[in-house]
Specification:
binds 5-amino-5-deoxy-1-O-phosphono-D-mannitol, 604 residues
Length: 604
């Protein structure tokens, strides 16, 4: 959470920072601020609200400073107020912070910092501590401060009496940096730097960076110079822009066919899954007796879809765990367990900690990650990168379907390696997976029909998604998406479970979106739909039927292409994403930046 950026170079820094903050805004948007260093003075502008409002505040100021830092906040410690917004200033020091300082209260007591503080934040305590230790040597003060901190942090620091320099250090919280002809830039993620350079490095943990207009020095805590590995970006700045769509979410929904093609095609050889370039040994699959999937939110739902396929096709047991629960368990995991970790950002702290726990218990870990070089990717034994490009909308869409595709690749590979799937079966499965982008394209043609459903849902305080088997799993994701961006209270229920309690909530006109795409339980779901229809629900049926005109079954029918049961996931995902998207849009909400949320959840 929180987006941070720093620039020092040969150009004016203000607009570079403000534009970068706009790109980072999906990481948090409670308040924003910028600090500019010029002529031995640091000017700080900050306020609650979005970056656009900060831009307004800064417009009247001079734009000549060439060194500065900026922050967009997702509040953790202290409410959403101007005082709690970053940057924080104390004496000579001005800093921005992403993360949580766990021992900030103890630090205030131990170093008597209370009189230096004007906010309620943990971050300001770091500024106060730095100011306490600073006697003209920034590196010495930083080292001393860092030794006293416990928690996660990515910090960018300026000292009023040190012109043109930004100092940075991190533990856990992400930060990348690059230098180019214009100067040096550091940020929480690539979206803010990609227009300056296609090359970057991940800031190594507990290393002090000194950014100047000529480049970046990296040194470890003992003072040794370090040359970090340079990585390159495989997407361009246009990928992080809306490209004519009203919201990133809609753009990302439409990008799904290409995202899946880019993820699947490089891993198909002779019609079969091939992980050679990912460096994943067959042994990993051969030796595993069971699979544990750990992830959060939408990524976890993608894992649940994978569970259906692996258990159904291979009869290998799969347990899906919420990372934030798993990490505090005493998990039943051993060398024969394969742990699959899913994360778009590769930075979700609960998922990262769950990964570490799985490894500590002897399990091999494959992570399915979208962001190259992210912490989860680096901590895993093997990485299967999804190639969805940057996902900016807080609500995850394309990252989800590529995760599902990656789970299907793993299922097929595991089946082959274990000798459970014949080559011919695996080839057939892969042909269908390769066709998934076409399924999505066909489903997207129905967008206008799906949009009409939103007009009913937007009026409702509650909505229900029901289905059986894989359709129930898809319902869980649908309910999350609708709640997250449209604020309609939504729940997913296994269709057969309604009569055990939930049906009491079904009254006149309550929207029930019923998924009936699983052939083996189709008749059962239709019976459950009749039960809610009989109680007045407004039913939207999503099925592969040609036409359903029976008012005893549904008020609206959304037709999916004809598909094999496990491949309905791709079509269903698009329908359910569009329902959520259009509901949020119809309510006039900021679809990409729903309240209280941030894209990467790097706090517990
Ligand atoms: O970056 P990750 O995939 O690890 O993020 C996990 C969840 O925070 C994320 O999927 C979240 O649930 C989405 N905002 C849902 O749309």
């Amino acid at each position: 959470m929180c987006g941070i950026i720093g620039f020092t170079g040969k150009k004016a820094a203000r607009d570079i920072i403000l534009n970068g903050l706009e790109r980072l805004e999906y990481r948090g948007y409670d308040s924003a601020g910028v600090a500019l260093l010029e002529d031995g003075k640091i000017s700080v502008k900050k306020r609650t609200g979005k970056v656009a409002e900060l831009k307004g505040l800064c417009q009247s100021e001079e734009n000549t400073a060439t060194c500065g830092i900026g922050h967009t906040r997702w509040a953790t410690h202290g409410g959403v107020t101007d005082a709690n917004a970053h940057p924080h200033r104390c004496g000579q020091v001005v800093l921005i912070h992403n993360g949580i300082i766990e021992n900030y209260r103890e630090l205030v007591r131990e170093y008597s910092l209370q009189d230096k503080l004007v906010s309620e934040t943990d971050s300001e305590v770091v500024a106060a501590l730095l100011d306490t230790f600073y006697e003209g040597d920034p590196i010495k003060a930083i080292k001393k401060t860092i030794k006293a901190l416990s928690g996660a942090f990515a910090l960018c620091i300026m000292f009023q009496d040190i012109p043109g320099k930004i100092f940075a250090i991190r533990n856990v919280s992400p930060m990348i940096a690059t230098s180019c002809a214009d100067g040096s830039i550091i940020a929480s993620d690539l979206t803010a730097v990609v227009e300056f350079s296609k090359e970057y490095f991940v800031v190594p943990e507990y290393h002090i960076l000194t950014l100047t207009e000529d480049g970046i020095d990296v040194m470890d805590m003992k003072g040794n110079e370090v040359k970090p590995e340079i990585l390159s970006v495989n997407w361009d700045v246009a990928s992080a822009q809306k490209g004519g769509y009203p919201f990133f979410m809609l753009k990302e929904i439409y990008e799904q066919p290409d995202a899946i093609r880019n993820t699947v095609s490089p891993r198909v050889s002779n019609g079969l899954p091939d992980f050679t370039t990912d460096g994943i040994d067959d042994e990993v699959f051969k030796n595993c007796k069971r699979v544990v999937v750990v992830a959060c939110g939408t990524a976890m739902h993608a894992g649940m879809v994978g569970k259906h396929v692996i258990e159904d096709k291979l009869r290998v047991p799969v347990q899906v765990e919420i990372a934030s629960e798993f990490r505090y368990k005493n998990p039943i995991i051993d060398e024969e367990t394969l742990t699959i970790v899913l994360s778009q950002s590769g930075e979700t702290i609960d998922t990262l900690e769950a990964l570490k726990l799985a490894k500590a218990n002897g399990s091999k870990v494959i992570s399915i990650v979208n962001v190259k070089g992210s912490t989860i990717a680096r901590e895993s034994d093997y990485v299967l990168y999804t190639h969805a490009g940057p996902e900016i909308a807080v609500a995850s869409t394309k990252a989800y379907t590529v995760q599902v595709a990656a789970m299907y690749l793993i299922a097929c590979k595991m089946g082959l390696v274990k000798g459970i799937l014949e080559e011919s079966e695996a080839r057939q499965f892969m042909t269908k997976l390769i066709n998934a982008p076409n399924i999505i394209e066909e489903t997207l043609e129905n967008a206008n029909n799906i949009k009409r459903v939103a007009n009913h849902i937007k009026m409702a305080p509650d909505a229900f998604f029901i289905g059986r088997g894989l359709d129930y799993t898809m319902s869980l994701e649908a309910a999350l998406k609708l709640k997250e961006i449209s604020y309609v209270h939504a729940e997913a229920y296994a269709a057969g479970e309604l009569k055990h309690g939930t049906i009491a909530l079904i009254t006149e006109n309550v929207p029930v979106i019923a998924l009936a795409t699983q052939e083996d339980v189709y008749g059962k779901v239709i019976s459950n739909i009749r039960e809610v229809k009989a109680r007045g629900a407004y039913v939207v049926l999503v099925s592969m039927d040609d036409e359903v005109n029976d008012p005893a079954i549904c008020d609206k029918h959304i037709k999916l292409p004809k598909l094999d049961k496990e491949f309905t996931a791709f079509a269903n995902a698009v329908v359910l994403q569009l329902i959520a998207y259009y509901t949020s849009e119809a309510k006039g909400l900021d679809v990409d930046k729903p309240r209280n949320l941030a894209k990467s959840v790097t706090v517990e």
